[in-house]
Amino acid sequence: MRKQDSSEKTIQKSLITTKLFDRFWDRWFAHGIAEQGISELRIELNDVSQWVNGLNRQAVHYENTACSHAERRLIGEAEHYYRTAGLYFYLIQWIFPEAGTDKRHWFQRCKEMFKKADILSEIQTTEASIEVKERMCFGRVRVPKSAKGCVIIINPIDSSKEELFTYESDFTNSGFVTVNFDGPGQGETYISQSLKASQANWALFITQVIDYTASHFPDLPIFLFGTSSGAAWAIFGASHPKVSKAVSVSPACKSNSHLPEYFLERMDYILDVNADLLPALDDLSHCKPVMLFHGKKDLMVRDQDIYNLYDRLPEGKRLVEYGDEGHCCNFKLDEIRKISTEWFLEESKNDV
Fold first, then answer.
1. pLDDT band at residue 177 under the 50/70/90 scheme
2. How far is it, in rounded angstroms, from Cα 91 to Cα 95?
3. Strand order in the sheet with 135-143
4. Residue 256: partners with Cβ closer than 8 Å, 6 or more residues away
5. Cα 120 to chain centroid, rounded
6. Contacts of 48 (CB under 8 A, 6+ apart)
7. At how many degrees (to 10) do helices 333-351 and 165-173 cross?
8. What are 178-203's pLDDT values in tens digits?
9. pLDDT at residue 345 tops 50
């Protein structure tokens, strides 16, 4: 099968999933996509042009709203709507599994919106890069005044730094520097560098991000916050000597954890051939304290997997469970970030 035909097949499977399964949208609603607009759009999602055109209309609406607020000097509102517009442009590019012209175009539109928001923001924001296997991984660093610590955000493999902007906002508003990079196979790193994901690449990436953070903010404690595959890598990173604590939300424990078919096909584009994405996590004896969050209705990570993982973690561990939440605890993320910041601050005080 030609690569283009394979890409179109994967896109079609993704579109069918978005149209038929409500749970697909949980992630996007949690990150800022408006449910009402999607309800109207889903009826029309029969091909990729309808996906692009429908979401583009909504993105442009938020972009125009941001411009209107900026003209009236309503800076906070303008910043928010620019980021929301960027999220919609990001969702447009997400449908394309291959790093081709369409994906690059819509990702660039996403970055344009975030750049406008960053210019308006009171939080100092800089673009950064690190090198992994002679390729560049791209990130964002946001620095509030009188920072209390650094939070490295480790995103799921199918997400990127722009999608999870609410994580940045919550942590910076609580006084933390946020360090948010696209790893191998993710976002800007995949699109611009064609750097694919593997267990070896990600081990290097996590170490490099922690080292980068420690060198740029030597006087601040470093914390990790990850979800899904990123949660597993947060636990891996918790063994780094510069890390103080890690939060792990729905850590993917096994590579074959009941993943939907469209997702597995998307992974073929961003994973090295025969590569395993997740860390082995065989030896956890050197981990700093880890807080686990788990949804009891998670279809990808079983209760017993979480309990087995928790039992192997060293002193200082904590486990928080939600009876009605699924994978990534999407509808409790605001609360999870609040609990996490309190826990991080608790450690910061203990270190003084």
1. very high
2. 7
3. 124-132, 135-143, 176-181, 149-154, 222-227, 243-249, 290-295, 318-322
4. none
5. 23
6. 11, 15, 95
7. 40
8. 999 999 999 999 999 999 999 999 99
9. yes
3-state secondary structure (DSSP) of residue 200: helix
Q: Which residues contact 290 (CB under 8 A, 6 or more apart)?
A: 234, 235, 238, 245, 246, 247, 248, 313, 316, 317, 318
Helices (H), the chain: 3-20, 26-31, 35-42, 48-71, 75-94, 101-120, 165-173, 187-193, 199-216, 229-237, 261-270, 303-312, 333-351
| Tokens read off for 33 | 């996509």
Tokens of 308: 């087995």
Q: Which of 330, 276, 254, 266 is nearest to 28 (CA)?
A: 330
Instruction: Give me the DSSP letters along 12-63.
Output: HHHHHHHHH-GGGGHHHHHHT--HHHHHHHHTT-SSHHHHHHHHHHHHHHHH
Closest CA to 172 of 150, 190, 194: 150
Rounded to 5°, the CA angle 73-142-89 comes to 65
Read off the amino acid at residue 336: I
Q: Residue 55 contacts by C-beta under 8 Å, 6 or more apart in sequence?
A: 41, 88, 89, 91, 92
